[in-house]
Amino acid sequence: MGDKRKKPLKLVTWITLLISAVMLIALCITGIIVAVDTADDVRDQQAEKALNIAQAVSRSPEAAEALRAGEQGASLQEYTREVQQATNMEYIVVMDMNSVRYTHPREDRIGKKFAGGDETEALNGRTYVSTAEGTLGVSMRAFVPVTAGGEQIGVTSVGILTDSIQEDIWADQKTLVLGSGIGLAAGVLGAFWLARRIKKTMHGLEPLEISQVLEQREAIMSSVREGVLAVDSSGKVILANEAARELFAEAGADEDPMGKDISYFFSDSLLKKVLQTKERELDQIQQLDEVEIIVSCMPVVSDTTLLGAVATFRNKDELTRLVEQLSGARTYAETLRAQSHEFMNKLHVISAMIQTESYEELDDYVMSISSNYRQEVGWVTAYVKDPVLAGYLMNKISNLQENGIEVELSGSGMWPAMADPEWTDHMITIIGNLIDNARDAMNHTPSPHLFMHIYEENSYLGFQIEDNGRGMDEKTQAELFERGYSTKGEGRGFGMYNTKRSLDTLKAEVFINSQPGEGTAFDVQIPMKKEN
């Protein structure tokens, strides 16, 4: 069976309907208030008009003379008809103190009693306006006493039918209704435009889709092992995933980073630099309290407007261990391959000597192989007691020999086993990068030769590495340990920079002796601590 659930209304429809409904309610309430006020004004104006006409007629000589004489003459009827036509009144009635009409729009009703019953107070001298039903229908009527010589002799009544008043009210309210209709139409169009604009700002996504995207983003951010941190254009943290929070906690910053300035966590943040320069920074080392991290930062720009920046980072120690594991595995595999190949060649030589019964030559050959093995393995085991360092050095020596480099080894003191793994990691970084640098320097040397000497002296562990490569001038020596500096091209220059950082961590000293074309000698002295 198909899914019969109703699809939710689109955002554009929701916004358009909501704004239209609000405008309709507002216009209706406003229209009602204005319409009631307008109707009251029209009624007041008509009442005042009727009252003024009644007062004018009551003061006329024609009304006073007719009432004093008690005669219902044609002159008074003619006079009231002219005033009625000139003022658009429904009727003008002059009556005596007995409510007998002296004038009326219909002459057959002259001489009869006034209808409505609301003239009583006027007969007692009051001036007022009331609404009552007379012979012409329901009307609003003004009553004014007629006096002569200080004595009341009658009453003048001027009336306007309520239907006529309603017509006047509607005539005034047509403009209000038309204006409200135009306003509502403009509001609907504006609501539709606004809804489309909001939808475009949200990249065409519906609220449900935005919710799904946010949930997916949270899931992705939680699954990423690298720390992810985003800041706005002012440097305030707007996003931090779980890995970033854990790294902050490891550095001693347990507070929620959201909303805080990035300078709170980094004294010299790359994110601040990226916000200023709008240029990315890749694989840079930063200090987070006592934790070293590798950071890459990217600016976030929309239509040339800087919105903020994003940084990804990871603990440098984790990356170092990972790189060392990968490098060690690769080196070990390469060493095994080389030794296997070399071993097979030697077996072929031995087999050939046995078949040709060259036993004396065979004896010399076996002694030579044994001597070379004792020189390499025996040297390492004699002077390096740390198994990690020993294994690493044997791999390095084998790799150099495989590349056709003659290796000469000597020693005058034993290196003890290291108790601190971090200390060992720094030693591997220093030795490995210096050997690699020497190997690269001898790439085009006809007879490459590397000399390594290990010693222990005055509470120092030391070693010397000498090569007969191309050497270095003073400028190269001065810039050798700078980050990114390399004579091998772009994307290099991090090995010696990491070496310098490890040297600084171990408070070691390095001495360089080199001349262009005459090779290079490194002498490293590392303070030895008993606990290490």
UniProtKB/TrEMBL annotation:
CDD domains to which the protein is assigned, alphabetical: PAS
SMART domains on file: HATPase_c, PAS
Gene Ontology biological-process entries: regulation of DNA-templated transcription
Topology in the lipid bilayer: Multi-pass membrane protein
E.C. number(s) listed in UniProt: 2.7.13.3
Keyword Chaperone listed: no
An example molecular function term from Gene Ontology annotations: ATP binding
Catalytic reactions on record: ATP + protein L-histidine = ADP + protein N-phospho-L-histidine
Hydrolase among keywords: no
Transmembrane segments: 12-36, 176-195
Name of the protein in question: histidine kinase
Protein species of origin: Marinococcus halophilus
